[in-house]
Amino acid sequence: MPERSPLAGPCAWRGEELAASSRWIRTLDADALAAIDTALAAVRARNLAWHAVTRETFPLPGLEGLFADIAAELEDGSGVMKLRGLPVARYAPDDLRRIWFGIGCHLGRPVFQNRSGELMRDIRDEGAGIGDRYGQVAQGDGKAFLSSYARTLSNGPLRFHTDRCDVVGLLCVRQAGSGGMSRLASSVAIHNEMLKRRPDLLELLFRDFHRSRFGEEATSPDVVYRLPIFGLRDGKFTSHYSLTYIEAAEMVPGVPRLAPAQREAIRLLMDLADELAFDMMFEPGDMQFLNNHVVYHARTAFADDEAAGRARLLHRLWLTMPNNRPLPAGHEVLWGDIEAGRPRGGIGQARL
């Protein structure tokens, strides 16, 4: 068994440490808001749709330092950033999408989030029939197994997981009537705690697990690949994890079931995520950015209150980052290019 050491740095935070820190919070000031409004006016004058917005068509002079600061904190700091203060109620829906996409283009490059080629996804409760629209499989007990895609668009809880991009960005437009807590956990801190408690189980997470592309990528669970949950290259850690993809793979004939020790390793990972988590509520105008290589995210269940105008709505971007880290050999199966500073991630548009 390889000799492993604790991973150091600000990305190895515990929930109480992040709660006591402000290094991951920035606020848009009056000059920044004025620059955003000027850029929006230029885009509207050209009648550009939100998905046609670029860094060049949405110039934000004076904010270069802010975006560089956010990118550095995401890659070399805590892996978490909240940019707050955007007055979302001031803008029409299309204008808000233009602004959000423009900000995303200044920070990184948006990549596709599903096989339909979406560059921005509205995260909301889409009600009944999500399995029919976004993927489900009948299980032996008669219950439907929902794809990760479908679960995201329900009002149910989401387990700790990562997304298929360097950085996921969420803009809160409206919060729910109740619930919808955002939960974050450092996968680096989970690694370190597992090393202390159960190094034997930690080692299993550096080995391959079968995963299915069911949901955002494929319409059935049958397309399966193998990838470790934890990886390390040149001192840079990465974790790509979603239990739903692993469970979906187990439903495919010929794919081996998880060994008891593998199940124990996943249970410990999930228990540690709960133990080390930081919980926060979104407020309208909050923009949350997370480095998927070092941060897991989850969500508690929520209930909308339509009468009160509190129906949860988040706009999601997936970004590939110009300062992203190198990834271990073998991660090409998921990421495409594994070298540092190269565009990668997202969902390829060849239908599976």
List its traits:
Double-stranded beta-helix, alpha+beta, four-stranded antiparallel β-sheet, 30% helix
What does this structure look like?
- By secondary structure, this protein is of the alpha+beta class.
- It has one domain: Double-stranded beta-helix.
- Helix content is 30%, strand content 22%.
- The strands form six sheets. Strands 1, 2, 3, 4, 8, 16 and 19 form a seven-stranded mixed β-sheet that branches.
- Helix 8 (199-205) packs across helix 10 (260-276).
- 42% of the residues are buried.
- The mean pLDDT is 96.
Total count of domains? 1
Architecture (CATH level 2) name: 4-Layer Sandwich
The tally of beta strands, per DSSP, is 19
Put simply, the count of helices is 11
CATH level-3 fold name: Double-stranded beta-helix
The overall pLDDT average reads 96
The description of the largest β-sheet is:
7 strands, mixed
From the alpha-carbon coordinates, what is the Rg to the nearest angstrom? 20 Å
CATH evolutionary superfamily: Clavaminate synthase-like
Indicate the proportion of strand residues: 15-25%
**Intertermini distance:** 37 Å
CATH class designation: Alpha Beta
The rough form would be described as globular
> What is the structural class?
alpha+beta
Uncertain runs are none
Reading the helices and strands in chain order gives HEHHEHEEHEEHEEEEHHEEEEHHEEEEEH
